[in-house]
Amino acid sequence: MNITIKKLNRENEKTKTIWFPIEEENLDKICSELGIEMTTESNCYIENSMDRNFLRILHNKNCNIDELNYLMKRLDGFSQKEIERFYAASFAENPKTMTELINLSFNLHCYSLVSEFDNLEAIGKDLYLTERQAVSTKELDELDGESYAMDVIKNNPSSIITPYGVLYKNSNEPEQVYNGEQFPPYEWKDTMATVELKVKGGSEFIYIPCSDVEITKALMRLGTPYLDDCKVTIDSYNIPDRILNIIPDDLTSLNKIDTLNNLADKLKEMRSDIRYFERLMDYVNPQTVDEVFSLADSMYEFELFDGIKDIESYGRYMICESGHFEYDHNLEEYIDFKKYGIEKSNNELGSFSDKGYIIYHGYNQKLASLLFENLGIMVPEERELKTLKLYMPLTITTYDIQNDYGYRETLDEPMELGNFEIVDYIDEILEAIERDTLSGEEQRGLMKYYDGHDSVNGKVAKYEFSVEMVDAELMGVAILALNDDLTSSELEKIKGEIIDQVADGYVPKNNMGRSYIEMV
């Protein structure tokens, strides 16, 4: 919801229109810009909003910006029907403060809103379900909805006509969920963990990973400046138990939150690869938080072969199932799987365990002791990564040209630029590629989006795009940093990945006008 705010008690102070709810770090920047200080008291004024219904329920436009943001997080999770019921209940109850509005958002089960009366059967079942909050399908199916609706319409003493329909207050009693000081737990967005901070009988909740400003605000609402004054409890989490159990119990609250934050950041980067990381941990068996971090940094450098527990099984898998060979099962009796397994394993850093076979392609010295002690793998000394460049033709089309009179004009159809023209734009092209780099791509470049847990992922540490002059022609180039040489099949696989990426092209925003760069 767009809301225009300004600092409290400033007549001519500048205003800012913000979309609420807003991330805490972004809100903190806006507060600094407007001079709004961090406090639990009222500190901002609501100047306007595109939602007239919201303005209508505000008894006092002076409010605390954190309470406003919390209320917007609540409304952000509501369906359209729930929002209308919230506005109708606000119209009926006439809440005076933001605290009362927040509490009302937790008590919508105390109200039912009827805006149309053309289907009494459906209305009755909706009234019944709202009041009971949870009923079995059988019970709801057997309910005479029309009779129940008529009983409520005739006998409910608390019906109120609102701009949104008729509001009926049911038998549920409202609760004070928010005490006006500490916010109740509410996961507005997906988090890795919800952590309770407890001190002096009060509780605040932070959602990991979180920013420093979120922690500072939580401590402010608890009335303490120090995190170590708080008892830290993990309330709910999406962090694997195996990882949580590694965190030492004797950490200070400050160090515990810092550790949880760093772990959550790592796991969030992994996205769908968390399960794979758990499998990797089963093989490597890290025992400290530092070992978990080191393993996470190098997780892509491993290959796992679950259930492959001896050399012959490994050779058989590679020949029959890996896809590296065209295998004819009629030739099975002529193939020495064990011999091939021995030859292959002798040329890689691998080890058998009770989980299966594991290969390591990297040089992370922080893992040297862990891998040697638990798997007998000796990590070689770190060496300079090899570089492989894959070149491809470069095509640039543009809609903006300079006509014969020296003026810029826009074409109806795109025009492809010749190579002699492209060369003039090399700096702009490099800037466009740099701008296209997203957060999180610093370590691995576009390998960040490679989904396979295979030898390609282990050998290609990073790749990124650039352009270079080759025999007087400007070419697109994918620059690969390699831990080891690629086999022909691995090279073909990474080429396919790169082709998929370059198909999207780049759209630079500069004096080239509306242009498109494609590497083909």
UniProtKB/TrEMBL annotation:
It comes from the Bacteria. InterPro entries: ArdA, ArdA_dom3. Gene3D superfamilies: Antirestriction protein ArdA, domain 3. It holds the Pfam family ArdA. This is Antirestriction protein ArdA.
